[in-house]
Specification:
Elements (H helix, E strand, L loop, with lengths): L1 H10 L2 H5 L2 E3 L8 E5 L8 E2 L7 E3 L6 E13 L3 E4 L3 E7 L15
Antiparallel strand pairs: 1-4, 2-3, 2-5, 5-6, 5-7
Length: 107
Amino acid sequence: MKKLIFLTILFFPIQALCAPFLVCDPQATVGYYKITGDPYWTANVVAQVDGSIRSDLSTIPAGTHNIQVAACKTDVLWGESCSGTAPFTFSKPSPSNVPVNLRLVTP
């Protein structure tokens, strides 16, 4: 039993629990989200099972990001249908100082 618990902890991706995520409340019938206004999102984000969004932001570049998010679904008869967009702005901090006095040393 202890071995199973150890292996579970060893192979469980801890980083996935720590990253900041873009999320929203569950929404019925949503299939995916279109995010515009920032080059980080190059494709639509597939909705979670409950219709919410969960997008990992751990690799987004530092700086201010202004985005618009629309909830969408695709219907066989009507094709794509999207809501209006909701604006959202956030900032990822960057290191405040540039390294100074760089040099080589010998042991």
